[in-house]
Amino acid sequence: MKELLRRIPPVHEIQRKPEIKDIQERLNITREKLKHWIQTEIEHVRQLMMTNKREFQHKEEIEEYIIYQVKQKSMNWEKDNLTRVINATGTILHTNLGRARLSDEALEHVANVAKHYSNLEYSTKKGERGSRHSIVEELIKEVTGAEAALVVNNNAAAVYLTLRALAKNQEVIVSRGELVEIGGSFRVSSIMSESDAQLVEVGTTNKTHDFDYLDAINEQTVMILKVHTSNFKITGFTDQVNTEDLATIANKNGLIYYEDLGSGALINLEDYGIGDEPVVRDILEAGAHLVSFSGDKLLGGPQAGIVAGRKDLIDVLKRHQLARVLRVDKMTLAALETTLRMYAKGTHSSLMSIPAIRDILRPASEIKENVQAFLEKATANTMLTFDIRDSYATIGGGTMPDEQVQSYGVLVQSSVISPEQLEIRLRNQDTPVIGRFLDEQLFLDFRTLDHNDIDQLHRILASINQDLEVM
Q1: Which of 69, 350, 364, 390 could link 342 by a cystine bridge, Cβ 3.0 to 4.6 Å?
Q2: Per-residue CA distances from 264 to 244, 283, 300, 303 (Å)
Q3: Is residue 172 part of a domain?
Q4: 289 and 250 in contact (C-beta within 8 Å)?
């Protein structure tokens, strides 16, 4: 064994190889980093030999193996962990795939702000320090009708800050049927507990009445919280107290009425025959003192949590130390500003420039035309077959769980590999394609594809087809 191990070349010999020098030049990395990679692979080879997991016949073979492994490590290291994928699942706000896509206008604003210095916390009019709160506050007020607003890094943070700042060590009444669990096993009750607000559950899972809230009010009560159950539905023998009545109860008893909307719809999608998601402006007009909602769900912007409502309450949140902990950066504010301005414009064309809204509202006939155009070009892939199918897409993002939108897509099949193998090949491309299975076949839903996605999909399928031809 000692004789075999002596065949392993030293680090400095590997470092002199042209292939290794090329790696350093291409990646523009230090000699020390490359040395560490070589050392790691040499140790790996040593372990393979000592455990008899691999046999090497001569020194050159060991050397070639080490260089190959270093090359592979360099290519993997160079790849971005966060990368673009093609979402062909038909789930528009796919949480695992990044939820809402930003508009071209929002991306341009983000890039401009990121590339240059900005007036993030500087008033150019006054020539003095400003506040990042003012960047989007007026737009939020305009599109929601609120007196004031605050932006934090997500809606869970918005809930936490609101409860911590306004209800610490005091009681908050919430219906038992609204104690939802959101993504990643985060529960509203747990967030309340961490905020040191004292949770008071009222009613039952399926029914809560006004007298349940009234009976729970005491000297320690400071807030009534209503949580919109956007990620599930309870049907059948159910009842809940509406916003107007809860606001009345809160006002008569000197309490804060706060409604966590979650999804954050700024337009009434019911006008388009889609769901019954509450609109932020309507909830505030119905009497809610505060509302909070997400920026990257139905609003169609970046990840953010927005709190809007009474100015005196928002001012308390702005002054709280957690507001700094939970604040958003300049790029988030840039994307949010542009997205909010599209709502403020109010035209159909401005709304349809928001990808999430466009994908939700696009007519099924338009999607079918895209599929048919795709099929005409896809016939060149002789090792693959494509069949157009109608389907139903979902909104996603924990929003409108029962709502489905008519869509179209293609079943992709091959005579030489299984649907599961085809799915793996698509998923492991440099630009991964994520689809779903329909009738035990791989299905690509076109509602969530734009023209760039479709063009890229053609190139990926052509590459897979070429590989299959030589199998």
Answers
A1: 350
A2: 19, 11, 9, 12
A3: yes
A4: yes
Instruction: Check residue 99 and give left, alpha or beta (phi > 0: left; psi -120 to 50: alpha).
Output: left
pTM score, whole prediction: 0.92
231 lies in the same domain as 271? yes
pLDDT at 203 over 80: yes
In this structure, the answer to whether residues 214 and 327 fall within a common structural domain is: yes
- Write down which residue in 351, 386, 406 finishes a domain: 351
Give the C-alpha separation, 173 to 201, whole Å. Answer: 6
Does 147 fall in a domain? Answer: yes
Q: Are residues 343 and 371 in the same domain?
A: no
Gyration radius of the chain over CA positions? 28
For residue 187 the two structure tokens come to 């529960």
- Domain with 168, as residue range(s), is 104-351
* pLDDT value for 181: 62
For residues 231 and 411, the model is more confident at 411
Per-residue pLDDT tens digits for 435-457 = 999 999 999 999 999 999 999 99
Q: By three-state DSSP, how is residue 470 classified?
A: coil
Counted domains in the chain:
3
Same domain, 423 and 391: yes
Report yes or no: 230 and 399 within 8 Å, Cβ to Cβ.
yes
231 vs 244, higher pLDDT? 244
pLDDT of residue 183: 54
